[in-house]
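Annual report, structural modelling task.

Input specification for the glutathione complex:
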Amino acid sequence: MSSPTLYYFDLIGLAEPTRLAFHLGGVPFTDFRFQREQWNEEYKAKSPTGKAPWLQFEDGSYLTESRAILLYAASKAGLVPTDFTELAVCEQAYSIVQDSLPPLSDILHSHGDRETALKNALERLAAADKVVASRQSKEGWINGKGMTYVDLAVFAFVKTFTDRIEGVDMTKYESLQKTYNAVNAEPRIQEYYNKE
Ligand SMILES: N[C@@H](CCC(=O)N[C@@H](CS)C(=O)NCC(=O)O)C(=O)O
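The model returned the following structure:
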């Protein structure tokens, strides 16, 4: 399983935490990005499930589902806790943040009523903020100790909200913002975005 290719849209979306984990771990991979038209014409049919992202290995095997792919990349970078209680704390935060994704997706794709979707997303964000606060370290790490894969997921999520959703003040969600700031302050993360 050497030098895999990560297939996804040219977006943060569900692939950015994996890209960051590979980068932080110094793990070689190909960051293959397609546009929406290319997806419709070519890559949807190539995807093992008709969805993206997926991670293709040189031997023909693959991993699909963003959470599984992130865990794979993060394990290579030493960003998955080996202690199961710590892992449960990370998964708790991952799941509750994921709950905001359906309304977030509705807003981004202009599906349904924006106000209702925004209200739902913000309600879930407030819940996620509360849960993250309960164990977060003073530096901002969600497991209370150091950086893990879930910090990368929260970073990408806050970045999407900040960059793409008008009218939301993410600084109100202090714990999520603190995690964002902790990840953003890492020199390897700065290097990643300065290179782009
Ligand atoms: N459960 C999947 C969801 C994947 C998913 O819904 N991907 C979207 C992009 S974020 C997609 O492929 N959309 C294009 C389509 O459905 O044709 C995961 O976490 O990887």
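The CA atoms of residues 138 and 144 lie 8 Å apart.
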